[in-house]
């Protein structure tokens, strides 16, 4: 009788354990349908473009977002607001050591560390690593159906990207490139 109760107790514990973990799920991001659009600002203007995701996963407990990890293919950085020689020059410059140094650092990473919120409206804290330098950031994320959207503001100087930074080059303010750039992200899964 004691063995039977002990076996029954173990079955109940296993069933409860399975039920509590069965709601945890990772959802792989659809790389072809997802977009990352960057926008950089300079005195008197701005540039926009895209960069591709190499991989991405969002983690859920039931329908509640709990985490995620993403790899960004920095070799794919591309200006979309220019054409011809100007586009080629900007694309190559962004890939150079002045900016993202894609030969040495072909990928950037983002790992979600904390998620707060409900009903599809979240505040996300994450670590973003660009050029081997990690910065903790916070941003709002909206989740609806199978789509997550977010706008991240990144300070490039936290990642050792200081080319024509107005905080470092006081004499070149008329040619300065502002330190912050935006990533407008739409993830489909």
For this entry, give a set of tags.
189 residues; single chain; Lipocalin; 2 helices; Lipid/polyisoprenoid-bd_YceI; alpha+beta; 53% strand; globular; 8-stranded antiparallel β-barrel
**Could you tell me how far the N terminus lies from the C terminus, measured between alpha carbons in angstroms?**
50 Å
Strand content bin:
over 45%
Task: Figure out the total of helices.
Answer: 2
Gross morphology? globular
CATH architecture: Beta Barrel
Radius of gyration, CA atoms, in whole angstroms: 22 Å
Oligomer: single chain
Unreliable stretches, pLDDT < 50, 5 or more residues?
Answer: none
**What is the H level of CATH, i.e. the homologous superfamily?**
Lipid/polyisoprenoid-binding, YceI-like
Order of helices and strands: HEEEEHEEEEE
For the sheet with most strands, the description reads:
8 strands, antiparallel, barrel
In which order are the strands of the major sheet placed? 2-3-4-5-6-7-8-9
Q: Level of helix content? A: 10-25%
Structural class comes to alpha+beta
Overall strand count: 9
What does this structure look like?
Keywords: Signal. Pfam families: YceI (PF04264). This protein is of the alpha+beta class and 189 residues long. It has one domain: Lipid/polyisoprenoid-binding, YceI-like (Lipocalin), CATH 2.40.128. 17% of the residues lie in helices and 53% in strands. The protein is built from two helices and nine strands; from the N terminus they run αββββαβββββ. The chain has an eight-stranded antiparallel β-barrel with strand order 2-3-4-5-6-7-8-9. A hairpin with a 2-residue loop joins strand 5 and strand 6. It is globular.
